[in-house]
Amino acid sequence: MRRKSLLSVMILLTSSLVLQAAEQLLYKDASQPVDNRVLDLLERMTLEEKVAVVTGGEETVAGVNVQDSTKLKRAAAKRLGIPVFKIEHGPYGFKGKFGLNEPEVVGTYFPVTIAQAGTWDPELIKQISAAMGAEMHAAGGHANAGPAMNIIRDPRTGRSFEYFTEDPYLNGRMAVAGTQGLQSQKVMANLKHYVCNNQEFGRGGLNVKVSERALREIYLPGFEAAIKEGGAWSVMSAYNKLNGIYCSEQPFILNEILRKEWGFKGFVLSDWSGTHSTAGSANAGQEYAIRAEYAKIAAKADFRLGWNYENEAWLKEAVALAKKSDAVILTVGLSGNMGETEAGDRKTLNLFPAQERLINAIAGANQNTTVALIAGSAVTMDAWLENVPAVLMAWYPGQEGGHALAELLFGDVSPSGHLPITFPKSMDQYPDDFYTREREITYSEGIFVGYRYFDEHGLDVLFPFGHGLSYTTFAYGEPRLDKAVAKAGETISVSLDVTNTGKRAGAEVVQLSVHDVECSVPRPPKELKAFKKVFLQPGETKTVTLELDKRSFAFFCEKQNDWTVKPGEFELQIGSSSRDVRQKASCLLK
User: Are the CB atoms for 150 and 144 separated by under 8 Å?
Assistant: First the structure.
């Protein structure tokens, strides 16, 4: 009896020691430094397991069978007790499915990315991203394939709705907020698509030729801010080539800039099936290859307009109803089936002719017609704008868009959005080589993208970058600088009083742009460098303070291979849009 008891005690003690030893594995000890835990885990993995872990997919894609890799990955996860890495796809709405036989999980459908940028409210973007991150974390996700943050160089781009803006500074502010919101919920932000994926047609092999100055000043700053300030943990390389080399194996952007210059310590993964070689990608700094398409299921919710625009009888019925009505709210626009989609671009910025005909017919029948426009990018309106008194740009407003639309139209709240892109009068204003159906494109406009292009060439626009109306009005006081003369590199603070001069509560977006009065290289007439959204009650005044750092005055000098500030005078333009300048001031840099 004593022997059995002693044996039982020894077994229990041995089991306890084994269990205790397992619990003390360094890589499982959350109190230890992350780098130490990673090194410990790597030493316990076989080479085959390491390769499997950084290869995504569960099915055969483009002739490559990754079933064996997935099986090995799951076996390693079981042996070592580490979870299989799960990436959610949802820049503006979580919808995830992992594995062919697993259930699909759907979260809240938020306004699309360009609509979020239209708030010009980083704190709100952070809240949205945190809410989305919380849903993803609850569903077992580890990363979000987003924020999507390519510059909207051409408004015809089919995924413009998924991006923030045409402006690099605004892009950075939105991306930082989105990154911080997601990662506050222990869900990785995955910045995409790095870099210059500015059109969808031919993206898989399109060679984008762009100068380093344009790359640095326009296309990279958003990514840089999201990494340095936002602390982004992962980046997704773009499908296209950059200056002759696929982005997934481009050492200049992946190693030289991303890691050495910006100090990025996270990992880079390819877009789905976006790698083209093993050695090339690995040597350039590509750590994770996504092979399959099954997880790439975006949250899609088209507005079902329930209308046949070509139906003559319906048109007559609509006109008759408009004549009898006090006012008309006419909802028109686009959808994923009407040109705004991944892997496709719009051929025109116009609405469909039948929609334009409907607008003009209704407006002719009722002068109190408001057009609510559902779209994810710029829309040209010359065919009908002068016939309607009001247009509300609703973008794709998400699952609560109907309620938001009603609150705005019935005056419960005042509109406070401002355009994150320029609305041109016509696509004819762009050069013929601005878009291509070929295998190569040269960004010959250089740094003159978006409003920079229209300002540089003195072109009229339909609605300027930063434009937005309100049910109230705002007055801008004289700007005050904490220093009118500064050394290059010193921060300059600009303060001014903003007053709500109307009878309704509202919010104004104060936008500060910088103009280099005399420069040794071509520079845009103005560049956005700071902004602030301020909420004001009727008659209320608040002081807005905006700060300008070294980069606010700098340009990228290709000869010096660095950001450069030339001494001289800089004009500071403060206003409600890029074309609505309310106040000016100047400073001198020595």
Answer: no
